[in-house]
Amino acid sequence: MLTREELAATVRTVVSDVLGTEPDDLHDRTSLADEYGIDSLELMEIGARLERTLRLRIDPDDLLSARDVGHAVDLLHARAADPATAAPGSRTAHAVIALVPAPEGSA
Amino acid sequence: MNARDRHPSGGHRVAVTGIGLKTPAGNTLDEAYAAVLSGKPAATRLDRLAEAGLPVHIACLVPEFDTEPYLSRREARQIDRPARLLLCAAADALADAALPAEQPRERIGVQIGTGIGGLTSMEEATAGYVHRPRDLPVHTVPRTMANSPACRVALRHGFQGVCTTYSSACASGGTALAEAARRIRYGELDVAVAGGVDAAVSTVVLGSFARMRALSLRNDEPALASRPFDADRDGFVMGEGAVVLILERWEAARARGARIHGEIAGYAENCDAFHIAAPHEDGEVAARCMRAAVADAGLTLADIGHISAHGTSTVPGDRAEARAVARCYGVEPPPVTAIKGVTGHLIGAAGALAAALALRCATDGLVPPVANLCRSPEADLVDLVHGAPRAVAPAPVLSNAFGFGGQNACLVLAPPS
């Protein structure tokens, strides 16, 4: 299994290729949303490339919920260590999120 | 509205205040104009076409240029060649027009013609992923959709007026300019970023045109292959490129002191409704389109200084067009040129390139020679310019764009006055 450092290098390479930047421009605290205005298609492209490179099934939520590059690396690292467990900080896979308040008296 | 700003239709006159292009004849209007006047063909032999097993080994490509000033790496990797070329041509056209910063973005629209659109990109996606569709790149749909280049221009510059992609085969560039001019004339837009694009020098596209025997097979003499109206023509030479014109209301252009290239004074469009690929042999419907464009400009046929023919270098197309011109003019036709001998056939960009060059020719009073024209079976019908540019009085030019499906789009381009 990759060390966190090796994983971080892979993530930076893939992200920089999609965003047309250099791996060295990306740090753990880099926010792809705030600093690069990354869109969902680009995130999915990054996910698809990481899946191919890491030979790992990646939950799109892991990338969507990451605050910054470092957080994404942490989530992927946890996922790689134990694919069955939802990574810390990510939403539970397939969770149903209520959009309207539950009726009175219901659980 | 001041009387001299009013079009004969009662609407606004349409000024062209910016021109940008990326074409086999050059990447600026000056380069393309010089190439067309000198009659120097852009066609070259491409080994990759021979290696692909195609019968056609020649095409006209846009000369390589540095896209770094135009496109970020991030953007470039999401889009295909047509979108890249159009973004670059549009940037040049906008720089040329130098619109004021306060120009309302919701009143600027993008109007682009394309004959082939994203089919070449879809060809690549098909070749690469038909057996592993789960690996398709995420950007496949936004890259290949036909309206992608036009919408990329709108997106880049924040133009929120109507954005439309027109597809009328080889007439698409003419159609887009006509429709854009209409939207300016009748007040729907203040500014239109209008023109055409195609970049489809690919195995399946060339192979398909070749199967119709539409392409020249003069593989050993690429410079002699595209020869509109010449007795020895054997088909067109595929080109690629993007051409963008900035259109705005005449009075607005004058008021801001813009450099005005000229005017889209008239336009007309119709359809042969005769055959899906062949033009109507007697040219009657195309002739009607030409007359309607001249009438729309408030001119008579005698006011036209010369005609920029669609002239692709196919026997049926050239012959029908010569008959159409003869049908319009009878015994005293104006001189006729056809730029495709130099540029090749840019498909969706062809009509826009012809229009851009016609504006310069109308202003300078020069008719470019038809490249490679030595002897013509149509010489009894039309006055074909050959050998060297012919000087004429500065005057409006009638520019034809015709396409498969019987599509006809005619424009009248007038010098600034």
Detailed description of the structure:
The complex is a heterodimer of chains A (107) and B (417). Chain A is mostly helical and 107 residues long. Chain A has helices spanning 4-19, 32-36, 40-54, 60-64, 69-81. Chain A has a single domain, classed as Non-ribosomal Peptide Synthetase Peptidyl Carrier Protein, Chain A. Chain A is built from 5 helices and no strands. The N and C termini of chain A lie far apart (42 Å). Mean pLDDT of chain A is 81; it is low at 86-95. Chain B has 417 residues and is an alpha/beta fold. In chain B, the strands form 3 sheets. In chain B, strands 5-4-6-7-1-8-15-14-9-10-12 form an 11-stranded mixed sheet, sandwiched between helices. Chain B has a two-stranded antiparallel ribbon with strand order 2-3. In chain B, strands 11-13 form a two-stranded antiparallel sheet. Helices cover 33% and strands 19% of the residues of chain B. In chain B, helix 4 crosses helix 7, helix 8 crosses helix 14 (350-364) and helix 11 crosses helix 12. The chains are: A mainly alpha (107), B alpha/beta (417). At the A-B interface, helix 1 and helix 3 of A face helix 3 of B.
Describe the structure concisely for a colleague.
By secondary structure, chain A is mainly α. Helices cover 50% and strands 0% of the residues of chain A. Chain A is globular, with a radius of gyration of 15 Å.
Structural class of chain A: mainly alpha
Low-confidence parts of chain A lasting 5 or more residues at pLDDT below 50? 86-95
CATH class of chain A reads: Mainly Alpha
The first-to-last residue Cα distance of chain A is 42 Å
Straight-line distance between termini of chain B: 17 Å
Q: If strands are numbered along the chain, what order do they take across the biggest sheet of chain B?
A: 5-4-6-7-1-8-15-14-9-10-12
What percentage of the residues of chain B does DSSP assign to strands (E)?
Answer: 15-25%
Sketch the major β-sheet of chain B: 11 strands, mixed
Shape of chain B: globular
Mean pLDDT figure of chain B: 97
Q: Please tell me the total number of domains of chain A.
A: 1
Instruction: Count up the helices of chain B.
Output: 14
Rg of chain A, Å, rounded: 15 Å
What do we call the CATH topology of chain A? Non-ribosomal Peptide Synthetase Peptidyl Carrier Protein, Chain A
SS strand fraction of chain A: under 5%
Instruction: Tell me which oligomeric state these chains represent.
Output: heterodimer
Largest interface: A-B, 11 and 11 residues
Q: How confident is the prediction overall: mean pLDDT of chain A?
A: 81
Q: What's the total number of strands of chain A?
A: 0
Number of helices of chain A: 5
